[in-house]
Amino acid sequence: MNNRQNFINELFKFVTLLENSWDFIFSQVGLTVKNYQILYLISTGLDTSKSLLGWSYGSKPNMAKKLRFLEENEFITRSIDLKDKRVFRFLLTKKWNQAMQKISPIYETAVSEIFQWIDDKNLDIWKSIIEKCLQNFHAHCPE
């Protein structure tokens, strides 16, 4: 195995540990890490099923199920796009903001413990690397 493959394998382990930890944190407010992923994407302006699906790499039925769950549990609301009546737009709700206020201290503690030995400069470098990898992925992989 080459160096990049070994690096990716280590990332798999790291991401799995993060997902397990974050599932515990988000369960405090009735969510999973996958639900959080969708809510986070909505917070960045990806507010249609199609745009969310493009960034979450899930299936259409699975995305519909997650969006329905989030809507039924009042973390998001849906409205019809004014220009295209076939498109729904999703917005975060007050309940989502309250949930984030509740879990933020736990989340921040976990993040600071995990990354305590990495300074902000190095985090910025890693963020840049990950952003470039995501751009390459989207440029070369079909949605």
Please give the CATH architecture.
Orthogonal Bundle
String of helices and strands: HHHHEEHH
In helices, the fraction of residues equals: 55-70%
- pLDDT below 50 for ≥5 consecutive residues: which ranges? none
End-to-end C-alpha gap: 28 Å
Overall shape: it is globular
Number of domains: 1
Per DSSP E runs of 2 or more residues, the count of β-strands stands at 2
The strand line-up of the biggest sheet is 1-2
CATH superfamily: Winged helix-like DNA-binding domain superfamily/Winged helix DNA-binding domain
**What would you report as the Rg, rounded to the nearest angstrom?**
17 Å
Total helical elements: 6
CATH topology: the name is Arc Repressor Mutant, subunit A
Structure class: mainly alpha
**Average pLDDT metric:** 89
